[in-house]
Amino acid sequence: LLGSAMIYRYWREPNNPAILGVAWTIELVLVEILAFFTDSLLLLSAANVLLALGSLSLGNQAAIAPPPLARLSSFKLLPLVYGGIALSLRLNAFNAYTGLITLGVAIAGLGTGAKLRGGKPISYLSILGITCGFYELVAYQLLQGRGGSPADALTIFALVTAAIALIYRLGATLWHAQDRDRWLNFRLAELKIIAHSHWALACLLKLVAASYAITGNPRLSWLSLSLSVALAAYALIQARDTSDGDRGTARDWWVYVGLVEITATTVYARRLLADLLVLDPWRVLLVSLVSLVIYQLPWRSLGWEATPWRRFSLAIPALTLLATTDHLSYLNILAVAAFYARIAFSQRNWRWSYLSLAFIDWAIFRWLLAVGLTDFLYFASAIGASLLFIAQFDPDLQESSQKQIRHWLRLLGSGIIGLTAVLFHQQTGLLPAALGLGFTFGGLGLQIRAFLWVGTVTFLGTTCYQLVILSVNYPFLKWVLGLAAGVILLSIGARFERHRGQIIVMLHHWLSRLETWE
């Protein structure tokens, strides 16, 4: 009677108190009717959800009606009032339908937040309510089962979250295709952020699920792996999005995230599926081949920036090799070395071959240790030869302006070999003496000063050391050698005095010739 009287009285002159009064009498009538049949608060809560959605639709019609109805703010508040009553009535309940109540209230909140000035917080809370509603529906169904792995439960939650992210992201894409810049109370950029947030939450849930799966025995392994691939695909597809303008760095990061997700998925698959154990000895070789394919593909024509793909392909073979300790073989090391050599040839950038040299040296060191050749000279020879290779073949070092750097590299490479021989092979002195003569004659023949200096120093150092050893072991020989050295020096000095002019001219000639050498 009260409701009918208010409708009759204010039908032609509606105002906010009258609208709220009629709404409250409708609530009381609903309570009284339901009380005749049941005392279920959940049924009353569900009925209030219907009232909230109905009042939202009524408010939409009132907004396009002529004044004064269109100016009334009470229509905008009614969905929140009924929604608040619905949530309060179901707080202590949890069953198969309470999630639907949460979803209904959240949908009503979304529509209401879009109408209110400053209603953005209500819209965000409604988005959160939609997610919580779906979680509630899933959680109740999971709790009805017995046993099971926590990894499977987390995988299902991640699947639901990913589905929500996909819906929001597709909605933003469709709205953009229709040249719309807003959806309800959200700009399309904000809607994308909401989608990305759900994607990130799904990734986090998958990560936690993976930690449980490694120690447990999940039954949804294939679903988990498929979901990981889908999350990676989301990131890679997002990297092609240009609707927000040129954001090259952000798009690159989406590629990195997607590729890391794929890498983590392969590692996760290896831990879960025993059939993949057969690939372990070939793991690094396969990674190198896949990385080479990634590097060669025309990513720009496919819609992506090529830089992140190529950077990832350049880094992953070396990282895989360094992380592989149980199946490290010469084939794997040489495969990575060949990969970087191919990159050096493709880019015409000699610097990448340095990595190949490093991995080849690593393989040589492992082989030397495996066959028991632990002499320092073997290792020094490999390092020195690598430096000499760089000095000889690096195109950038062949420029005349790089002559000094090339000289120092040759000094360093040959000096490592000669110094090691002098320090560790003085039992007879034959080996360092032979190396010294070899470097000396090589320097003379090739006209390379670095070899001449190192060969001379190596030979003279070995000679002096052997003379000291002989003089210590044979004291009489010391006097003989000293006397002979004195006679030789005196004869040289006398000859120099007689032919000083000729010798000086000859020295200047040789020094000028020496300046033209490498």
What does this entry look like structurally?
This protein is mostly helical and 518 residues long. 78% of the residues lie in helices and 1% in strands. It has a two-stranded antiparallel sheet. β1 (182-183) and β2 form a beta hairpin. The longest helix has 28 residues, at 150-177. The radius of gyration is 41 Å and the shape is elongated. The relative contact order is 0.03.
Give the SSE map.
Blueprint: H1 2-9, H2 16-37, H3 41-63, H4 74-89, H5 98-113, H6 120-144, H7 150-177, E1 182-183, E2 186-187, H8 188-215, H9 221-238, H10 248-272, H11 283-296, H12 299-302, H13 306-323, H14 330-347, H15 352-370, H16 376-393, H17 403-424, H18 430-446, H19 449-473, H20 475-498, H21 500-515
Antiparallel strand pairs: 1-2
Helix pairs in contact: 1-2, 2-3, 3-4, 3-5, 4-5, 5-6, 6-7, 7-8, 7-9, 8-9, 9-10, 10-13, 11-13, 11-14, 13-14, 14-15, 15-16, 16-17, 17-18, 17-19, 18-19, 19-20
Which characteristics define this entry?
two-stranded antiparallel sheet; 21 helices; mainly alpha; 518 residues; single chain
Shape, per Cα inertia axes: elongated
Order of helices and strands: HHHHHHHEEHHHHHHHHHHHHHH
Report the end-to-end length measured between terminal Cα atoms. 112 Å
Strand order of the main beta sheet, please?
Answer: 1-2
Radius of gyration: 41 Å
Number of strands: 2
In terms of DSSP E residues, the strand content is under 5%
> Main beta sheet: strand number and arrangement?
2 strands, antiparallel
